[in-house]
Every structure is written in C-alpha cells, then in structure tokens.
C-alpha cells in the first residue's frame, strides 16, 4: 500500500474514532440530569379515570364497548384540576421530573391538537387544554418535563388495530391509509415538540408494528433535530436512550447503562376506585432504595380522577416519600450504584467519586450493621439527616492476608429513621473491594 493511502486511512479512522468519542460525550451529557434525578412521577390521566376502569385496555379487551367507553368524555370535567398544586406535590415528593400521558392507546389527547378532535378541548366536558398548564407549572417548579405518547391510537379510524378481535386493515392491503395515520401521529408529535419542547419522550405500544412501519428512525431524528438534548425511552422499537422495566424491580442489576423502573402506586396505572391495593410508603421507599442502589430511576405512577383531583391515598404516599427523600438527599441524588450485595446485605449507593458509601438499613439492625470485604480504611461514619457519628470495629483481618476482615458498625436504636435509616461511610479513598476467593493461606 502506498504511504499516502495509509496516511489517509489512518486519518479517517482517527476522525471517525474522535467522532464516536464526541457522540458518546454528547450522549453522556444529555443523560446526566436523568441519571442524577433518581425519582420521577408518572401520571396516567384520561377518560378511563371516570368509570375507574383499565386505561384503554378495558374496551380493547372487551370489558366495555368502545361506544360506552367514549361516554366517559362526559365525566371528564377537570373541574378540580389544579396543575400548580400537582407540580408542588411532585416537587415535594423529591421527584425531579414528571411524565404525563398526553395520549394513551385510546387516542384521547390532553392538549388542543389540530389533528382530529378527540381531545380534552373538543370532545369532553373539560373543554380545555389540560396539558399546557401542567407543563408550565412543572417548568416553574424547576422540574423536567416528560411526555408519554402512545404510538397506537385505537380510536382513530385510519389506525390498523381497534380491539383484540377486530383489526381495521392490514398495512400491505392499504398502504395509503397507513400513510395517512403516519402523517397524523407524526404531526401530533411535531405539535408536542413545538409546543412543549419536552426534556423526555415516553413512548408506548410499539409492539403493534415494527420499526420500519412506525418509521422509528425518522421520528427519532425529527425529535432530536428540534432538541438534540431530548431523551427518548426505549419503547420506540429500540430507537431510544434508556430501558424501561415495568412493575417489578429487576432482581439482578440491569445491564443497560440507563434505566427506569415504572411502577404503579396500587395495581393500576389510571385511577380505579375499586383498587385499594396501595403499596405503603415504607414499601415504596424500600423499592426506591433498591432501584437507586442498582443504578436506576424510579418512575412512580399516580392516577388522578376525572375531575382532576388526586386521590388522598396517593397524596399521602407522595408526601411520605418527600419527607424521607428530603432528609436523605445526599445519599440519593447524583449518586451511582452501590456495592454488590455480598459486601452489604442491603441497598447502597456511592458518591460519584466513590469515596462515600451510603448504606440503606431497613428496620432495626439490633445493634450492628455489617460490611464485608471492604479494603478501605473508614475515616468517619454518621447517620444521614441526623448527624450522629457512629463507631465501628474490624474483625478477622490478619497481617499476612489481603483479606480485609469484617467491619461492624454500631447503630443505636435512637438514631433509626421510621422508614429507612441511611448511614454515610467516608472512605480513605475510592471504594476498594476484596473480590478474591479467600484462600486459606495466601502465598507471597
Ligand atoms: C403498558 C400498558 C399501558 C401503560 C404502560 C405504562 O405498556 O399497556 O397501559 O400505560 O404499560 O408503562
């Protein structure tokens, strides 16, 4: 090969390498607020709250006819809707962002869309755009704005699917009709992007068509051209930025670098009068600690009623959560995933520089909390949000072995938090864990 050819080759490799380093940097920068935020509040608000039935699925699955489902527009009054109070409640819970259903699979839009008239302005008693004032209130309270948008629209006449056993048409039979739907849904997305410039888009329902059919890459491009810093969840046929496990806290640490567990506050996404199976504040705090200890975010869902009020049980959980998150701020926001469970039998987080370890202790440890195989020296230990300094003892370390022993931290009962106690452990440097097999005698 000629020298000049090699030179050009090297130059172009270096160029594309530096380009990919650049795009990684951009990705990391735009994901940073999300990674640091830890807690978001999800809101499912729509017609389904009126009867208190499954969001959209109730007619799709045949529990109610589509005709009767639509009658709920009458009860969707939004008369007690107070977007400012919603935003305050979210802010006080300790959440840093909120994601609201601008349109669920039933196709009912919460804003004044120019595409069709099935929305809260033209089709319901509310007679007003209920999305815009909420977005304004979020921004006023310094909260990031997330917009949930369902790709399927089961009410729209030119969408393929209608109910579980009736499909309107197949794309290959009526490509022009599908094109009409694409214009419609992408037009709505453009409106959302022009009106609200969301920090995050939360897609849903991508399973009904493949990436090519949805034109997923084009949609991604359209939204990012408008705002390169916006974040997309993964439910756009993998053309998104982060994974969205649903309902169950993953048992093993998820592999994705960015993830968010979405979870209902009881068993329903939208308001259901008959669902009394609320998780307790204590359980939610426990799950939240598990999530952040594994490097994820929790997107906790609430379901306001058709009149816009938020059920008292839901308000209470958010307030209880807020009390705990504000006391334990430093162990939550801006931290990274903690140490593996073998070292501490519970959730933990680390400061970004990994010199501070936060241990989350549920209930009463009856005297001692145990850390195994921590090579660092501990400089200081205290109770987060309380300040009491704690002492510790090292047991089982011997001079001839790398094995660092077991550290016992004495925790008196009077420093315990009602929900979950957090202990801050200041290390002598970056966390360093003993991961060897623990041979009986270590040579050299
Ligand atoms: C599922 C459900 C949908 C709900 C969503 C929230 O995809 O189909 O109704 O809105 O989960 O994550």
Automatic annotation (TrEMBL):
This is alpha-L-fucosidase. SMART domains: Alpha_L_fucos. Belongs to the glycosyl hydrolase 29 family. It is an enzyme of class 3 (hydrolase). One of its GO terms (biological process) is glycoside catabolic process. Residues 1-18 form the signal peptide. Alpha-L-fucosidase is responsible for hydrolyzing the alpha-1,6-linked fucose joined to the reducing-end N-acetylglucosamine of the carbohydrate moieties of glycoproteins. SUPFAM superfamilies: (Trans)glycosidases (SSF51445). GO terms for cellular component: lysosome.
């Amino acid at each position: 090969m000629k020298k000049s050819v090699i030179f050009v080759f090297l130059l172009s490799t270096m160029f594309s390498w530096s380009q990919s380093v650049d795009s990684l940097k951009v990705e990391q920068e735009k994901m940073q607020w999300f990674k640091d935020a830890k807690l978001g509040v999800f809101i499912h608000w729509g017609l389904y709250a009126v009867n208190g039935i499954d969001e959209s699925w109730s007619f799709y699955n045949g529990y109610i006819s589509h005709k009767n489902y639509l009658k709920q527009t009458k009860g969707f009054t939004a008369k007690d809707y107070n977007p400012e109070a919603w935003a305050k409640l979210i802010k006080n819970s300790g959440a840093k962002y909120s994601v609201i259903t601008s349109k669920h699979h039933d196709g009912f839009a919460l804003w004044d869309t120019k595409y069709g008239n099935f929305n809260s302005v033209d089709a319901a008693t509310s007679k007003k755009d209920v999305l815009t004032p909420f977005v304004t209130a979020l921004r006023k309270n310094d909260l990031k704005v997330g917009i949930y948008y369902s790709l399927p629209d089961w009410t729209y006449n030119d969408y393929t699917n209608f109910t579980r056993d009736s499909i309107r048409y197949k794309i290959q039979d009526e490509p022009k009709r599908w094109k009409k739907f694409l214009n419609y849904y992408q037009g709505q997305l453009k409106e959302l992007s022009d009106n609200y410039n969301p920090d995050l888009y939360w897609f849903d329902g991508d399973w009904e068509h493949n990436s090519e059919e949805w034109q997923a890459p084009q949609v991604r491009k359209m939204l990012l051209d408008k705002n390169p810093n916006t974040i997309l969840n993964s439910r756009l046929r993998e053309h998104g930025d982060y994974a969205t496990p649903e309902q169950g806290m993953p048992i093993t640490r998820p592999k994705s670098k960015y993830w968010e567990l979405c979870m209902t506050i009881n068993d329903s996404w939208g308001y259901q009068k008959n669902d009394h199976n609320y998780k307790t504040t204590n359980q939610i705090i426990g799950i939240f600690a598990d999530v952040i200890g594994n490097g994820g975010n929790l997107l906790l869902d609430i379901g306001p009623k058709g009149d816009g009020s938020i059920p008292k049980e839901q308000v209470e959980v958010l307030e209880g959560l807020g009390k705990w998150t504000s006391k334990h701020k430093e162990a939550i926001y801006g931290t990274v995933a903690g140490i593996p469970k073998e070292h501490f039998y519970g959730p933990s987080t680390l400061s970004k520089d990994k010199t501070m370890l936060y241990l989350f202790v549920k209930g009463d440890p009856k005297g001692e909390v145990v850390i195994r195989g921590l090579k660092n020296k501990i400089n200081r230990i205290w109770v987060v949000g309380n300040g009491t300094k704690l002492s510790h003892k090292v047991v089982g370390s011997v001079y001839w072995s790398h094995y660092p022993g077991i550290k016992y931290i004495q925790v008196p009962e009077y420093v315990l938090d009602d929900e979950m106690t957090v202990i801050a452990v200041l290390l002598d440097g970056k966390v360093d864990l003993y991961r060897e097999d623990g041979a009986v005698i270590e040579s050299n």
